[in-house]
Amino acid sequence: MPLTLNEAEIAAGVSRIAQSIRDKTAGAPISLVGIRRRGDEVAERVLTLLAEDDDRELRFGVLDISLYRDDFEHLHENPTLQGSEISFTVEGAHVILVDDVIFTGRTIRAALDALADYGRPAKVELAVLIDRGHREMPIQPDYTGIRLNTHRLDHVLVSLTGTDGVDAVEVVEKPSP
Amino acid sequence: MARKDLLDIVSLERGEIDRLLDQAAPFKELFTRSVKKVPALKGKSVLMLFYEASTRTHSSFEVAAKRLSADVVNFDVAHSSITKGESVRETIETLQAMRTDFIIVRHRNSGLPGVIAKLTKASVVNAGDGAHAHPTQALLDAFTIKEKFPEPAGRKVLIVGDILHSRVARSTSTVLKKLGVEVAYLGPGTLVPRVGPEQTRRFTNYDEAMAWGPDFVYLLRVQMERQDVQYFPSVREYHRLYGVTETRLQQIRDRGLYIMHPGPVNRGVELCDAVMDYERSLINDQVENGIAVRMSVLYYLKPESGEA
Questions:
Q1: What is the pLDDT along chain B (308 residues), one digit of tens a residue?
Q2: What is the three-class DSSP state of B205?
Q3: What is the ipTM of this complex?
């Protein structure tokens, strides 16, 4: 299977996100919230880059959106719940949600609902490592690492070192009928 | 594999037990949020079918279902046609027509929840049937023990009281053994079964049981309402022989043991008043954990009615 993106390209995507956040938010306090699974790892990497800036107040959290999905009826088995870890006050915070891939936008819809149950943020933005298109919801990222052209039925397989032992992205094409 | 019903502990595989317990922790974390509710079971209905009185288990399931955003319907058995002679099958057919997704059953007859499960597409959760099983109690007990010892294998739990008639003793000792926890029974000779699960130690003498070195002392409720046959001479005698008296509480404190009880407590029978203030009493933890574990169970089960 040909590698669509390698380690260096993924790293470039992450630093693109960090740079655009810097450009737009100019040292303001930021709360990065990664969406399980892999969104948390992307968020951690962005956090590491932003932490190099002086005097920036940064917070980090992880969101498990399993209980907020809209597709329980279609699942054979409910996803295993791992739980969210948000120890800071969401009320009034500038939150940037972080995920590895944006596709239909449904995960982000669920994440917005989940976040709202922790409080009312002053502002919520969205950062994604990969935008693969084909939205089914009126949701767009504010910060994008990499854009990929895909067909709707393709699978985009993201591996990250912390979760999967290696950094790689593969696009698996839908087998022709 | 998706599971439709939870009827007992025996049929649960180790992997399922681990998953149900692991998942209860994030549910418990939700209780500290200002919004304690999640939308996982939005639009689903949970029917409470309690043929036997139970305030605690009933409200625990009800809170669990509501925190998952399900609608809860109480089928008031005492005032239903069941008292007019309607059979269980007819009742279930009526409930089936209501398209309920989950049925929580408590009944004094062992095995009845299993019968109901076969008759309905809804997921059935056994909330206690006769002397057979009380699986959610067992899971919440196991969860409470794991909060103290994340790797519970090799730990020792002494279950004290009426083992013979207790579905709690049966289910809880089954789940604990599946987790590698050692279990022993202590009680009057008339109430501790001679036959039973293998490798379960049986004691009739309190001091001998303590010499076994338990980490947890689990007191069963003396079921006053079921003492129509006398299994022990008097309540005072029971307290003197098997209850946690103030002297015994001091010994328990010195050894740093945990005390558990499924509730409701008969003060002055299973334990003295001072136990309620004992820092290693887990009785209130069990109540809170019960809600988290029942949320985990409801989230895990898949009703057939939910299939597209």
A1: 689 999 999 999 999 999 999 999 999 999 988 899 999 999 999 999 998 888 899 999 999 999 999 999 998 676 565 555 567 777 878 877 888 999 999 998 999 999 999 989 999 999 999 889 999 999 999 999 999 999 999 999 999 999 988 999 999 999 999 999 999 999 998 888 776 656 689 999 999 999 999 999 999 998 876 665 677 778 888 999 999 999 999 999 999 999 999 999 999 999 999 999 999 999 999 999 999 999 999 999 999 854 43
A2: coil
A3: 0.83
Question: What is the four-CA torsion angle of B242, B246, B248, B249, rounded to 10 degrees?
Answer: 110
**How many angstroms separate the CA atoms of B248 and B250, rounded?**
5
Q: Which fold has domain B135-282?
A: Rossmann fold (3.40.50)
Do B14-132+288-306 and B135-282 share a fold?
yes
**Which helix (H) or strand (E) is B240 found in, with range?**
helix B235-242
Q: What is the pTM of this model?
A: 0.90
- Fold (CATH) for A8-151: Rossmann fold (3.40.50)
- The CATH T-level fold of domain B14-132+288-306 is Rossmann fold (3.40.50)
Token duo for residue B136: 């959610």
Amino acid at B223: Q
Q: Which two tokens stand for residue A38?
A: 């892999």
A66/B39 Cβ within 8 A: no
Q: Give the best residue of A36, A81, A109 to mutate against chain B (max B CB count within 10 A).
A: A81
- Chain A residue numbers touching B295 (CB-CB < 8 A): none
How far off is chain A from B27, nearest CA to CA, in Å?
A: 7
